[in-house]
Protein backbone atom coordinates (compact mmCIF):
# COMPACT_ATOMS: atom_id res chain seq x y z
CA UNK A 1 0.00 0.00 0.00
CA UNK A 2 1.24 3.47 -0.89
CA UNK A 3 3.16 5.28 1.87
CA UNK A 4 2.88 9.03 2.36
CA UNK A 5 6.69 9.16 2.03
CA UNK A 6 6.95 6.89 -1.00
CA UNK A 7 9.39 8.09 -3.66
CA UNK A 8 11.01 10.82 -1.55
CA UNK A 9 14.79 11.12 -1.56
CA UNK A 10 16.43 11.78 1.80
CA UNK A 11 20.10 12.43 2.41
CA UNK A 12 20.79 11.05 5.90
CA UNK A 13 23.92 12.43 7.60
CA UNK A 14 25.21 10.53 10.62
CA UNK A 15 27.83 11.90 13.02
CA UNK A 16 29.79 10.36 15.90
CA UNK A 17 27.37 9.93 18.81
CA UNK A 18 26.36 6.87 20.82
CA UNK A 19 22.81 7.63 19.61
CA UNK A 20 23.86 6.36 16.18
CA UNK A 21 22.13 3.05 16.96
CA UNK A 22 18.79 4.93 16.89
CA UNK A 23 19.66 6.28 13.46
CA UNK A 24 19.83 2.70 12.21
CA UNK A 25 16.20 2.23 13.23
CA UNK A 26 15.24 5.49 11.50
CA UNK A 27 16.88 4.35 8.26
CA UNK A 28 15.01 1.04 8.48
CA UNK A 29 11.66 2.81 8.99
CA UNK A 30 12.26 5.25 6.12
CA UNK A 31 13.28 2.46 3.76
CA UNK A 32 10.19 0.47 4.77
CA UNK A 33 8.14 3.55 3.82
CA UNK A 34 9.65 3.41 0.29
CA UNK A 35 12.01 6.35 0.78
CA UNK A 36 15.28 6.43 -1.14
CA UNK A 37 17.71 6.91 1.76
CA UNK A 38 21.31 7.81 1.01
CA UNK A 39 23.48 7.60 4.12
CA UNK A 40 26.59 9.71 4.61
CA UNK A 41 28.70 8.90 7.69
CA UNK A 42 31.52 10.81 9.28
CA UNK A 43 34.71 9.01 10.28
CA UNK A 44 33.65 9.28 13.95
CA UNK A 45 30.22 7.76 13.23
CA UNK A 46 31.87 4.75 11.59
CA UNK A 47 33.68 4.07 14.88
CA UNK A 48 30.34 3.44 16.57
CA UNK A 49 28.64 1.34 13.90
CA UNK A 50 29.74 -0.15 10.57
CA UNK A 51 28.69 1.42 7.29
CA UNK A 52 27.70 -2.12 6.21
CA UNK A 53 24.80 -1.92 8.66
CA UNK A 54 23.38 1.14 6.94
CA UNK A 55 24.03 -0.29 3.48
CA UNK A 56 21.99 -3.38 4.44
CA UNK A 57 19.17 -1.31 5.96
CA UNK A 58 18.91 1.20 3.13
CA UNK A 59 19.74 -1.13 0.25
CA UNK A 60 21.98 1.61 -1.11
CA UNK A 61 25.61 2.58 -1.10
CA UNK A 62 26.84 4.39 2.03
CA UNK A 63 29.25 7.30 1.60
CA UNK A 64 32.00 7.89 4.15
CA UNK A 65 34.82 9.82 2.51
CA UNK A 66 35.41 12.85 0.35
CA UNK A 67 37.86 11.09 -1.94
CA UNK A 68 36.67 7.51 -2.27
CA UNK A 69 38.64 5.29 -4.62
CA UNK A 70 35.68 4.31 -6.83
CA UNK A 71 34.18 7.79 -7.13
CA UNK A 72 35.76 8.34 -10.56
CA UNK A 73 35.19 11.86 -11.83
CA UNK A 74 31.93 12.27 -9.87
CA UNK A 75 31.80 15.29 -7.59
CA UNK A 76 29.96 13.43 -4.85
CA UNK A 77 29.33 16.41 -2.59
CA UNK A 78 27.57 18.24 -5.43
CA UNK A 79 25.65 15.33 -6.96
CA UNK A 80 24.30 13.98 -3.66
CA UNK A 81 23.35 17.45 -2.41
CA UNK A 82 21.46 18.21 -5.61
CA UNK A 83 19.46 14.98 -5.73
CA UNK A 84 17.69 15.01 -2.36
CA UNK A 85 14.27 16.30 -1.30
CA UNK A 86 15.44 16.67 2.30
CA UNK A 87 18.66 16.42 4.27
CA UNK A 88 18.59 15.23 7.88
CA UNK A 89 21.48 15.07 10.33
CA UNK A 90 20.85 12.53 13.10
CA UNK A 91 22.43 12.30 15.52
CA UNK A 92 24.09 15.71 15.26
CA UNK A 93 27.02 16.25 17.63
CA UNK A 94 28.27 19.56 19.02
CA UNK A 95 31.31 19.26 16.73
CA UNK A 96 29.24 18.73 13.59
CA UNK A 97 26.90 21.63 14.38
CA UNK A 98 29.89 23.90 15.00
CA UNK A 99 31.14 23.01 11.51
CA UNK A 100 27.77 23.62 9.86
CA UNK A 101 27.26 26.92 11.71
CA UNK A 102 30.65 28.27 10.68
CA UNK A 103 30.74 27.03 7.10
CA UNK A 104 33.49 24.46 7.53
CA UNK A 105 33.80 21.93 4.70
CA UNK A 106 36.57 19.58 5.79
CA UNK A 107 34.79 16.25 5.23
CA UNK A 108 32.10 14.87 2.93
CA UNK A 109 29.13 15.54 5.22
CA UNK A 110 30.00 19.15 6.09
CA UNK A 111 30.66 19.84 2.40
CA UNK A 112 27.33 18.28 1.43
CA UNK A 113 25.43 20.39 3.95
CA UNK A 114 27.11 23.53 2.61
CA UNK A 115 26.17 22.60 -0.98
CA UNK A 116 22.63 21.42 -0.20
CA UNK A 117 19.72 23.54 -1.45
CA UNK A 118 17.05 21.29 0.09
CA UNK A 119 15.75 21.88 3.60
CA UNK A 120 18.07 20.61 6.35
CA UNK A 121 16.77 19.15 9.63
CA UNK A 122 19.24 18.84 12.50
CA UNK A 123 18.57 16.40 15.38
CA UNK A 124 21.10 17.10 18.17
CA UNK A 125 22.18 14.39 20.63
CA UNK A 126 24.83 14.91 23.31
CA UNK A 127 25.57 15.40 27.01
CA UNK A 128 23.37 18.02 28.70
CA UNK A 129 26.29 20.28 29.63
CA UNK A 130 27.55 20.25 26.05
CA UNK A 131 24.10 21.01 24.68
CA UNK A 132 23.47 23.86 27.14
CA UNK A 133 26.92 25.43 26.66
CA UNK A 134 26.77 28.96 25.30
CA UNK A 135 28.88 28.02 22.25
CA UNK A 136 26.51 25.20 21.25
CA UNK A 137 23.47 27.40 21.79
CA UNK A 138 25.05 30.15 19.68
CA UNK A 139 25.68 27.64 16.90
CA UNK A 140 22.08 26.43 17.07
CA UNK A 141 20.85 30.02 16.81
CA UNK A 142 23.04 30.61 13.77
CA UNK A 143 21.81 27.43 12.09
CA UNK A 144 18.21 28.55 12.64
CA UNK A 145 19.07 31.90 11.08
CA UNK A 146 20.38 29.99 8.05
CA UNK A 147 16.97 28.33 7.78
CA UNK A 148 17.88 24.93 9.20
CA UNK A 149 15.21 23.12 11.21
CA UNK A 150 16.47 22.36 14.72
CA UNK A 151 14.63 19.61 16.61
CA UNK A 152 15.32 20.00 20.30
CA UNK A 153 16.49 16.78 22.01
CA UNK A 154 14.48 15.05 24.73
CA UNK A 155 14.95 15.04 28.49
CA UNK A 156 15.88 11.76 30.13
CA UNK A 157 18.64 9.36 31.10
CA UNK A 158 21.72 9.85 28.93
CA UNK A 159 24.32 7.28 27.86
CA UNK A 160 26.90 8.87 30.17
CA UNK A 161 24.63 8.27 33.17
CA UNK A 162 23.54 11.89 33.58
CA UNK A 163 19.93 12.95 33.63
CA UNK A 164 18.80 15.91 31.53
CA UNK A 165 18.32 17.25 28.03
CA UNK A 166 20.29 15.69 25.18
CA UNK A 167 18.58 12.43 24.14
CA UNK A 168 17.92 11.99 20.43
CA UNK A 169 14.17 12.33 19.89
CA UNK A 170 11.99 9.26 19.39
CA UNK A 171 11.24 8.07 15.86
CA UNK A 172 7.58 9.13 16.11
CA UNK A 173 8.66 12.74 16.74
CA UNK A 174 11.29 12.61 14.01
CA UNK A 175 8.81 11.20 11.49
CA UNK A 176 6.38 14.03 12.15
CA UNK A 177 9.14 16.63 11.64
CA UNK A 178 10.25 14.94 8.42
CA UNK A 179 6.69 14.85 7.07
CA UNK A 180 6.18 18.52 7.95
CA UNK A 181 9.41 19.48 6.21
CA UNK A 182 8.35 17.66 3.03
CA UNK A 183 4.72 18.83 3.01
CA UNK A 184 3.61 21.71 0.77
CA UNK A 185 2.77 24.78 2.85
CA UNK A 186 -0.43 25.39 0.90
CA UNK A 187 -2.56 25.89 4.03
CA UNK A 188 -0.28 28.47 5.62
CA UNK A 189 -2.23 31.43 7.04
CA UNK A 190 -5.42 29.33 6.99
CA UNK A 191 -7.43 28.21 10.02
CA UNK A 192 -8.91 24.73 9.76
CA UNK A 193 -11.55 23.55 12.23
CA UNK A 194 -11.86 19.75 12.41
CA UNK A 195 -14.17 17.54 14.43
CA UNK A 196 -13.21 13.98 15.29
CA UNK A 197 -14.24 10.90 17.22
CA UNK A 198 -17.57 9.79 18.65
CA UNK A 199 -19.90 11.48 21.12
CA UNK A 200 -21.20 9.85 24.30
CA UNK A 201 -24.84 10.41 25.20
CA UNK A 202 -25.34 9.39 28.83
CA UNK A 203 -28.55 7.82 30.15
CA UNK A 204 -27.21 7.09 33.64
CA UNK A 205 -23.86 7.63 35.46
CA UNK A 206 -22.49 4.31 34.17
CA UNK A 207 -23.84 3.98 30.63
CA UNK A 208 -24.04 5.91 27.39
CA UNK A 209 -25.10 5.61 23.76
CA UNK A 210 -22.30 6.00 21.24
CA UNK A 211 -20.79 4.51 18.07
CA UNK A 212 -17.62 2.74 16.95
CA UNK A 213 -15.68 5.81 15.79
CA UNK A 214 -12.05 5.85 16.97
CA UNK A 215 -11.22 9.35 15.73
CA UNK A 216 -8.41 8.09 13.45
CA UNK A 217 -9.66 9.90 10.34
CA UNK A 218 -10.25 13.23 12.06
CA UNK A 219 -6.96 13.12 13.93
CA UNK A 220 -5.19 12.17 10.68
CA UNK A 221 -6.72 15.22 9.00
CA UNK A 222 -5.61 17.43 11.89
CA UNK A 223 -2.03 16.14 11.62
CA UNK A 224 -1.97 16.57 7.84
CA UNK A 225 -3.38 20.11 7.97
CA UNK A 226 -0.86 21.09 10.64
CA UNK A 227 2.00 19.75 8.52
CA UNK A 228 0.78 21.90 5.64
CA UNK A 229 1.03 25.07 7.70
CA UNK A 230 -2.54 25.53 8.92
CA UNK A 231 -3.63 26.68 12.32
CA UNK A 232 -5.72 23.68 13.40
CA UNK A 233 -8.52 23.61 15.95
CA UNK A 234 -9.55 20.03 16.74
CA UNK A 235 -12.88 19.48 18.50
CA UNK A 236 -12.67 15.90 19.68
CA UNK A 237 -15.04 13.48 21.27
CA UNK A 238 -13.63 10.78 23.59
CA UNK A 239 -10.64 9.17 21.88
CA UNK A 240 -7.57 7.18 22.92
CA UNK A 241 -5.39 8.85 20.26
CA UNK A 242 -2.66 11.29 21.34
CA UNK A 243 -3.34 14.85 20.16
CA UNK A 244 -1.33 15.85 17.05
CA UNK A 245 1.56 18.23 17.80
CA UNK A 246 0.85 21.95 17.53
CA UNK A 247 -2.92 21.51 17.36
CA UNK A 248 -5.41 23.42 19.55
CA UNK A 249 -7.63 20.71 21.00
CA UNK A 250 -11.09 21.18 22.47
CA UNK A 251 -12.27 18.05 24.27
CA UNK A 252 -16.01 17.40 24.45
CA UNK A 253 -18.21 14.50 25.53
CA UNK A 254 -21.63 14.78 23.91
CA UNK A 255 -23.22 16.17 20.75
CA UNK A 256 -24.50 19.34 22.39
CA UNK A 257 -21.03 20.16 23.69
CA UNK A 258 -19.64 19.56 20.19
CA UNK A 259 -22.32 21.85 18.75
CA UNK A 260 -21.39 24.64 21.17
CA UNK A 261 -17.64 24.26 20.52
CA UNK A 262 -18.07 24.29 16.74
CA UNK A 263 -20.37 27.33 16.85
CA UNK A 264 -17.83 29.13 19.02
CA UNK A 265 -14.90 28.55 16.65
CA UNK A 266 -16.31 28.28 13.12
CA UNK A 267 -16.39 32.06 12.46
CA UNK A 268 -12.58 32.23 12.63
CA UNK A 269 -12.15 29.22 10.32
CA UNK A 270 -11.41 29.23 6.59
CA UNK A 271 -12.26 25.51 6.41
CA UNK A 272 -14.51 23.32 8.57
CA UNK A 273 -14.10 19.55 8.30
CA UNK A 274 -16.83 17.62 10.12
CA UNK A 275 -15.20 14.20 10.43
CA UNK A 276 -16.73 13.32 13.81
CA UNK A 277 -19.37 10.61 14.13
CA UNK A 278 -21.91 12.67 16.06
CA UNK A 279 -24.73 10.73 17.73
CA UNK A 280 -28.00 11.50 15.95
CA UNK A 281 -30.04 10.88 19.12
CA UNK A 282 -29.67 11.20 22.89
CA UNK A 283 -31.76 9.90 25.79
CA UNK A 284 -34.61 12.27 26.60
CA UNK A 285 -33.73 11.95 30.28
CA UNK A 286 -30.44 11.23 32.04
CA UNK A 287 -30.92 9.32 35.27
CA UNK A 288 -29.03 10.61 38.30
CA UNK A 289 -28.53 7.11 39.68
CA UNK A 290 -27.43 3.91 37.93
CA UNK A 291 -30.35 1.96 36.50
CA UNK A 292 -30.47 -1.43 38.23
CA UNK A 293 -30.87 -4.66 36.31
CA UNK A 294 -34.34 -5.99 36.98
CA UNK A 295 -34.99 -8.48 34.23
CA UNK A 296 -37.72 -6.32 32.72
CA UNK A 297 -37.82 -4.58 29.38
CA UNK A 298 -36.33 -1.11 29.51
CA UNK A 299 -37.90 1.61 27.41
CA UNK A 300 -35.47 4.35 26.44
CA UNK A 301 -36.97 7.49 24.92
CA UNK A 302 -34.64 9.21 22.45
CA UNK A 303 -34.70 12.76 21.14
CA UNK A 304 -32.73 14.14 18.16
CA UNK A 305 -29.44 15.93 18.64
CA UNK A 306 -28.75 19.16 16.75
CA UNK A 307 -27.55 18.62 13.18
CA UNK A 308 -24.34 20.65 13.40
CA UNK A 309 -23.37 20.22 9.76
CA UNK A 310 -26.80 21.26 8.46
CA UNK A 311 -26.78 24.33 10.69
CA UNK A 312 -23.36 25.37 9.36
CA UNK A 313 -24.61 24.87 5.81
CA UNK A 314 -27.55 27.17 6.48
CA UNK A 315 -25.26 29.84 7.91
CA UNK A 316 -22.97 29.53 4.88
CA UNK A 317 -25.80 30.49 2.50
CA UNK A 318 -25.50 34.03 3.82
CA UNK A 319 -21.80 34.30 4.65
CA UNK A 320 -20.44 32.18 1.73
CA UNK A 321 -17.78 30.88 4.11
CA UNK A 322 -16.17 28.87 5.59
CA UNK A 323 -15.45 26.07 3.14
CA UNK A 324 -17.56 23.22 4.47
CA UNK A 325 -16.57 19.54 4.25
CA UNK A 326 -18.84 16.76 5.50
CA UNK A 327 -18.46 13.01 5.94
CA UNK A 328 -21.01 10.33 5.07
CA UNK A 329 -20.41 6.99 6.77
CA UNK A 330 -22.72 4.70 4.82
CA UNK A 331 -23.55 1.00 4.71
CA UNK A 332 -25.47 1.07 1.38
CA UNK A 333 -26.33 3.37 -1.55
CA UNK A 334 -23.14 5.28 -0.76
CA UNK A 335 -22.97 7.68 -3.70
CA UNK A 336 -26.70 8.43 -3.72
CA UNK A 337 -26.63 9.24 -0.01
CA UNK A 338 -23.50 11.36 -0.46
CA UNK A 339 -25.09 13.44 -3.20
CA UNK A 340 -28.25 13.91 -1.14
CA UNK A 341 -26.30 15.13 1.92
CA UNK A 342 -24.09 17.39 -0.19
CA UNK A 343 -27.14 19.23 -1.51
CA UNK A 344 -29.28 19.13 1.63
CA UNK A 345 -26.53 20.49 3.88
CA UNK A 346 -25.03 22.97 1.40
CA UNK A 347 -21.54 21.46 1.43
CA UNK A 348 -18.51 22.22 -0.71
CA UNK A 349 -17.23 18.65 -0.47
CA UNK A 350 -18.44 15.38 0.98
CA UNK A 351 -16.28 12.38 1.85
CA UNK A 352 -18.08 9.04 1.61
CA UNK A 353 -16.85 5.82 3.13
CA UNK A 354 -18.22 2.31 3.57
CA UNK A 355 -18.54 1.49 7.27
CA UNK A 356 -19.09 -2.23 6.71
CA UNK A 357 -16.20 -2.81 4.30
CA UNK A 358 -13.51 -5.27 5.36
CA UNK A 359 -10.68 -2.71 5.58
CA UNK A 360 -12.66 0.53 5.83
CA UNK A 361 -14.76 2.47 8.27
CA UNK A 362 -14.52 2.70 12.05
CA UNK A 363 -11.25 1.89 13.85
CA UNK A 364 -9.49 0.64 10.67
CA UNK A 365 -6.12 2.09 9.66
CA UNK A 366 -7.21 2.11 6.01
CA UNK A 367 -10.10 3.60 4.12
CA UNK A 368 -11.58 3.58 0.63
CA UNK A 369 -13.32 6.89 0.11
CA UNK A 370 -15.21 8.71 -2.61
CA UNK A 371 -15.20 12.50 -2.92
CA UNK A 372 -18.05 14.55 -4.36
CA UNK A 373 -17.49 18.30 -4.74
CA UNK A 374 -19.99 21.15 -4.96
CA UNK A 375 -20.16 20.75 -8.76
CA UNK A 376 -21.08 17.06 -8.21
CA UNK A 377 -17.74 15.89 -9.59
CA UNK A 378 -17.08 12.37 -8.31
CA UNK A 379 -13.64 10.94 -7.51
CA UNK A 380 -13.33 7.36 -6.24
CA UNK A 381 -10.06 6.58 -4.49
CA UNK A 382 -8.48 3.13 -4.02
CA UNK A 383 -7.89 1.53 -0.63
CA UNK A 384 -5.34 3.73 1.14
CA UNK A 385 -4.05 4.37 4.63
CA UNK A 386 -6.09 6.98 6.49
CA UNK A 387 -2.94 9.12 6.58
CA UNK A 388 -2.77 9.16 2.78
CA UNK A 389 -6.56 9.68 2.57
CA UNK A 390 -6.21 12.76 4.78
CA UNK A 391 -3.67 14.32 2.44
CA UNK A 392 -5.79 13.57 -0.64
CA UNK A 393 -8.82 15.17 1.00
CA UNK A 394 -6.72 18.25 1.78
CA UNK A 395 -5.44 18.34 -1.81
CA UNK A 396 -9.08 18.71 -2.85
CA UNK A 397 -9.68 21.33 -0.17
CA UNK A 398 -6.76 23.41 -1.43
CA UNK A 399 -8.18 23.32 -4.99
CA UNK A 400 -11.59 24.42 -3.72
CA UNK A 401 -10.00 27.29 -1.77
CA UNK A 402 -8.31 28.47 -4.93
Task: Tell me the layout of helices and strands.
Blueprint: E1 9-14, H1 20-32, E2 36-41, H2 45-48, H3 51-58, H4 76-83, E3 86-92, H5 94-101, H6 108-115, E4 119-124, H7 128-132, H8 134-145, E5 149-150, E6 154-157, E7 163-167, H9 171-182, E8 191-196, E9 201-204, E10 207-209, H10 216-227, E11 231-236, E12 248-251, H11 255-265, E13 271-274, E14 281-283, E15 302-304, H12 308-319, E16 323-330, H13 334-344, E17 349-354, E18 366-367, E19 369-373, E20 378-380, E21 384-385, H14 386-401
Helix pairs in contact: 1-3, 4-6, 5-8, 10-14
Provide a descriptive summary of the structure in words:
There is one protein chain. With 402 residues, the chain is an alpha/beta fold. It has two domains: 174 residues, 3-Layer(aba) Sandwich (Rossmann fold); 190 residues, CoaB-like (Rossmann fold). It is built from 14 helices and 21 strands. The strands form six sheets. An eight-stranded mixed β-sheet has the order 12-11-8-13-16-17-19-20, with helices on both faces. The chain has a five-stranded parallel β-sheet with strand order 2-1-3-4-5, with helices on both faces. A two-stranded antiparallel ribbon has the order 6-7. A hairpin with a 2-residue loop joins strand 9 and strand 10. Helix 1 packs parallel to helix 3, helix 4 crosses helix 6 and helix 5 packs across helix 8. The protein is elongated, with a radius of gyration of 25 Å. The two termini are 30 Å apart. The model has no long low-confidence stretch (mean pLDDT 92).
Amino acid sequence: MKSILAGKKILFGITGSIAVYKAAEWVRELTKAEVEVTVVMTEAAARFISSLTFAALSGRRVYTGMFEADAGEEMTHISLAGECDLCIIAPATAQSMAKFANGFADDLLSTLVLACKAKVLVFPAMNSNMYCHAATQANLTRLQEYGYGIIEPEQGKLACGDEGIGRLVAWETAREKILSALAPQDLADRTVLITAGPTWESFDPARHLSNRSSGKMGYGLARAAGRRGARVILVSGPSAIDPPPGVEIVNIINAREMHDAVMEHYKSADVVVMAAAVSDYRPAKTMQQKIKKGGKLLDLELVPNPDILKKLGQKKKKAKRPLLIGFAAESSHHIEEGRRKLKEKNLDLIVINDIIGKDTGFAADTNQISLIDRDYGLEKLPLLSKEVCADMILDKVVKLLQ
